[in-house]
Amino acid sequence: MLSFTEENYLKAIYRLSEGGTKSVLTSEIAEMMSTKAASVTDMIKKLSLKNLIGYEKYYGVKITKQGKSEALMVIRKHRLWETFLVEKLQFTWDEVHDVAEQLEHIQSNLLIEKLDEFLGFPTADPHGHPIPDKNGKIQTVRQIPLADLVTSKKCVIRSVKDGSPSFLQYLSKIGVYIGAPVVILEKIEFDGSLEILIDGNKKVFISRDAAQNLLVTE
Amino acid sequence: MLSFTEENYLKAIYRLSEGGTKSVLTSEIAEMMSTKAASVTDMIKKLSLKNLIGYEKYYGVKITKQGKSEALMVIRKHRLWETFLVEKLQFTWDEVHDVAEQLEHIQSNLLIEKLDEFLGFPTADPHGHPIPDKNGKIQTVRQIPLADLVTSKKCVIRSVKDGSPSFLQYLSKIGVYIGAPVVILEKIEFDGSLEILIDGNKKVFISRDAAQNLLVTE
DNA sequence: ATATTTTTTTAGACTAGTCTAAACTTTTAT
DNA sequence: ATAAAAGTTTAGACTAGTCTAAAAAAATAT
């Protein structure tokens, strides 16, 4: 049984390693966890003893199969709870993160399987992020940043890459939502901003940064 | 902001003080929390500094108004979550306690108010225990142990006093549920057991202990 | 190739919560 | 009324997780 803290470290390592592919530095973990490198070193030793990560002094860590599986379960719980909060309790998509950060640590397999069923086995959370199934399998669909799409090609908004509350509020305000059909009307060369058409009827300008953070499928 | 542990102590003290009326001994708290008296003494000092309880060395503790209010909020959350688990996720009433013990510590007013609304502002949990409202107000209805009812008087099962999973499973098995109409057919003098009629069609014998643990209204 | 900078680890200390063992108070029994 | 028993508190130690400061290793720059 992992502690709250161990789960959070593992999740951070999983994210930083991009799904377990890259190895991760102490300083990166410290940054993501808002803590100091010395604390990270201590925790790394613990996780390493439990075979959740491989660790070589001074050369960072690599998540193991077992560690990856634990991380995926935490992510599964986080995303199922976010879905619950939005679909059932009418939270807005910018309000769910902090509560889900707490709910993801509740320990009960029965709970999470029943929640999954209650929600109709969703495959993506309110931000469009895929929900791992009970075996940790993630349904991956190739998505590209809206910024990389060519002008006048039709696409659908699938997810937000980094969804800070203020960015999500901004998106709602301009009418962007997961599933929205979008076309790029014009790319402004000066600053890389885009003029886009949402839902076939709303024309807006969005910054290059915003367009990098919106992932779409053609 | 109270810690997980502080909330649990406060809840125990609230229960043992019977809603803040009696004062509570260190050893009683230790017993209920499955810990040692020395640990209780330490925590008592902390809670006392935060004005959640009044404490006089060697003479036990008394919960304050503020402490009572905090305890009631934890109880409110616990019972709302139990209700959610049974009504929405199809848990049985004997499965909910341990999960609710975790969920009750999630910190978010928005969450609990939205959950309350989602559940239709229930006034009792699956065991018939009253759910404090957002101001900590409890709707009290006078209930008596089934054991104290006279023979052949109609009554309705309202709650279980101490609901261990195995007792709850037993009740389900014999057809007792919250809201069930019951009459005592006969009181067996030998051991205080009762023959009762449930739902107008099921005759069963239940022990004196069981009849003490079932609360009813006439 | 060596010196400097950056990063990581170690050492030692701190808080929250727990424990055991010993000291101290109160209660109970004679 | 006093001795024994029971219950409570203190003292000191332990674990989990955190921190700062110093030491050690690696990366970088000349």
Characterize this entry briefly.
2 copies of one chain form a homodimer. By secondary structure, the first copy, chain A, is of the alpha+beta class. Chain A has 3 domains: 4-63, Orthogonal Bundle (Arc Repressor Mutant, subunit A), CATH 1.10.10; 72-138, Winged helix-like DNA-binding domain superfamily/Winged helix DNA-binding domain (Arc Repressor Mutant, subunit A), CATH 1.10.10; 144-217, SH3 type barrels (Roll).
Descriptive report:
Two copies of one chain form a homodimer. With 218 residues, the first copy, chain A, is of the alpha+beta class. Chain A has three domains: 60 residues, Winged helix-like DNA-binding domain superfamily/Winged helix DNA-binding domain (Arc Repressor Mutant, subunit A, Orthogonal Bundle), CATH 1.10.10; 67 residues, Orthogonal Bundle (Arc Repressor Mutant, subunit A), CATH 1.10.10; 74 residues, Roll (SH3 type barrels). In chain A, 41% of the residues lie in helices and 17% in strands. Chain A contains eight helices and eight strands. In chain A, strands 3-8-4-5-6-7 form a six-stranded antiparallel β-sheet. A two-stranded antiparallel sheet of chain A has the order 1-2. In chain A, a hairpin with a 3-residue loop joins strand 6 and strand 7. In chain A, helix 1 packs across helix 2, helix 1 packs across helix 4 and helix 4 packs across helix 5. The first copy, chain A, is globular. The mean pLDDT of chain A is 97. At the A-B interface, helix 5 and helix 6 of A face helix 5 and helix 6 of B. The structure holds a DNA duplex (30 and 30 nucleotides).
